[in-house]
Structures are given as C-alpha cells and as structure tokens.
Design a protein that fits this description.
The complex is a heterodimer of chains A (274) and B (135). Chain A is α/β, with parallel strands linked by helices. Chain A has helices at 16-28, 57-69, 78-93, 95-105, 120-128, 130-136, 158-161, 171-178, 197-200, 202-218, 229-237, 254-261, and strands at residues 2-6, 32-35, 73-75, 117-119, 145-148, 182-184, 223-226, 251-253. Chain A contains twelve helices and eight strands. In chain A, helix 1 (16-28) runs parallel beside helix 12, helix 2 (57-69) packs across helix 3 and helix 6 (130-136) packs parallel to helix 8. Chain B is built from ten helices and no strands. Chains A and B meet through helix 9, helix 10 and helix 11 of A and helix 2, helix 7, helix 8 and helix 10 of B.
Chain lengths: 274, 135
Amino acid sequence: MRYSYYPGCTLKTTATVLDESALKSAEALGIELAEQDEWQCCGAVFPLSTDEIASYLSSVRSLAATAEAGEKLVTLCAACHHVIKRANHVMKTNEEVRDKANNYLELEEYYSGQGEVIHYLEMLRDDFGFEKLAEKVKQPLEGRKVAAYYGCLLLRPGKVMEFDNAEDPSIMEDFIEALGAEAVDYPYRTECCGVYLSVNNEDIATGMVEKIVNSALRHGAEAIINACPLCHYNLIELQDKNADGEPVLPVYYFTELLQEALGLTEKVEDKASG
Amino acid sequence: MLKVKTENLRSNILKDIAEISGENVADCYQCGKCTSACPVNQAMDILPHQVLRLLQLGMVDEILESKTIWICASCFTCAGRCPRDVDLANVMEGLRLTLLRQRDASRIKAEDMPEILSKGMPEQGVVSGFRKYVK
C-alpha cells in the first residue's frame, strides 16, 4: 500500500517523535508513506469565516497533488487533518470559494474535491484493518491500561470529519485493544484540552486538562494517548507533576504505543517522551 | 429596564458579523444546549446562548467588550449539539475578526513568542494563537 503523506510543521520540529514513530511503524506494516514535495503549513486552524479564501490554498495544493498522484493523502497531526479535511469539504460544496481558490492556484486540473485525505488511524482501521494489525503485534501490551484522548479536531464537526461517531467514538479504543492493551473508558475523552488558550490563557487551559487527566486516572488509566501535538503539550505541561517532576499520568502519541507493540522500540515508559 | 433600539438592529457591525460568520442568529431559540456543552463556560462573563440572544437584540457592544469571545476555544462542541444548526463557533469567529479588523484588538505579541517557544510550545500552538488573536 502506498499513500501520499502530509507531515505538517510541528511534526518536523517539536513533534518529531510522532513523525518518526509513525513512519517506522508504517514501514514495518508494509505501508509506504511518501512525503509530498513542497507541502506547506496548513495554517493550524480552519478558517471559520466566509471570506478567508487564502487560508485554503495550502490544503488545496496538497489535495490536488494527492489526486494527481492517484493516492490517498495521509495525515497524523489532528490539526492538519482537521484543516485539510474541512478544506476539501468546502471545495466540494462551495462553488464561490472553489472558483476563487482555483483561479488563484492555476492548477493543471480544476480542483473540486476529487482528492481524499484520511488520518493515519483511519488508514489502519479502514484500509489495513485492526484485525490484521493485531496479528502483526510482536510485543502485546498486555495488562496495560491506556486511556484514549480524542480531543476536538478529529471528531468535530462530525458531519464533515466523518472520523467516527463524534459523541461516542471507538476508533482509538479499538486501536488500543488491537495492540493487546486494555482501553480505559472515561467521560472526558472527547472534551477540549484548551488548545491555543495555553498561549495566553494558561489558567483556563490548565483547568480543562485537570478535568481530563483526573477523569482518566479515576477510571484506572496508567497512560493516555493522543494524536495532536498541541493536546500532547497541554496534557503534559498543564497537568500535575509527581515528586520526580514527571506528569502524574504519562502522555504518549498513539504511534509510540504502536511502535512498541510492533517490537520496534523498548517499552515507552522506559524512555522519555517528546 | 432593557431597551432594544431599532438602530442597533440595523447596524453595519451586525451585518458584518453575519456576513463574516455566515450564520443566522435568528434561528436560535435559546434552548441552552450550547452553554451546557461548552467546556469553558465557567470562565465566560457572557454565556454562549446569551451571546446569541444579545446578537438577536442587536446588543453587539456588550459582546465585543466581553471576555467570552477570547475564551471560546473553537472546540465545536456547541455547534455539534445545536438543534437549530446555528454554528456558534463561526459566530464567535465573526465577533473576534470584527474586533481584530476594525479595532485592532490583537491579544498576543510577536516579541513574547521566544519565551513561549522556549517552554516547548509546539509550532501548531503558536500559529493557532496568531491566527486567532492577531490582526
């Protein structure tokens, strides 16, 4: 299986762990993720206003390139996925924005949403299959209690993201169980972590992270996984630390657990998470 | 006593917000689901459903002076639960952009970024901050 791959800015800078663990795991599963040439920053937040056409352009460039290559586009960062998926929806449904974006980009072929973007987790669930993934596990994570943290951007708006049931998702829990670990069910798994509020409203974001982490701990979690560099940062930086200065509840990218289960790395608890 | 002024309902700023957000606030029937869904409502001085009510009454200044629009984290929970398909996240963006564009209410400064980045803040957070809080 071969896909076009869109890493995004943060995976090449502060979140290299997410990039590297995902690529190594894909390679071990026989999946080729070919990084797109000249991809550009997605803009990190989806333009919620009707008049910000320029903010769509980098997404449309990547989507048009993936359509031309005849491959699905795979993302890892929840924010990139959110922006590109929603931009594609706009290209399919909003003629005015579509025409303006096409006029500006002067693409070889008019782009109207013919490209397809999927998140790495969707690639594992829908194309590779969690059952097949379970068969590939070399170091089952038996006895480990892991909480899935979805956050906002993969799930909402549900009608556009079509990632999973936006109010009651199961893709990450199914992923955790495919790796042999026990998925911890807790009520705050789809609540917002505060996103960019941590840039200038840290107290509010801290309160949001506390609710998520405490809820996961109360339900027996020993670790929490996520797919977003900003959630990852907030969950680590804004939660209480133990006597060693480490977060009370360890936080990992979902791909770190994958890499471990596939026998590509030592137990994630034994190494520092980036 | 609350007085609703007709000139407020015809104000250009109300039209700007409607145009930028693409939302029709008149559709809201004040069920309060957005407020009960909002994970930051405890930090807001005007609650999410009240933002829509004030807009229906043309009372824009009260909202533009509030903390609420800068506390909204665009988590999209409200929009997903609205039975009237009013996307309040879009309305909040329309309110922020109106202030940023017309009154330059930028909330973060480039010179503060080295310190924020030194704490390990991902680029995604910095770019999001600039997109949401700066003209």
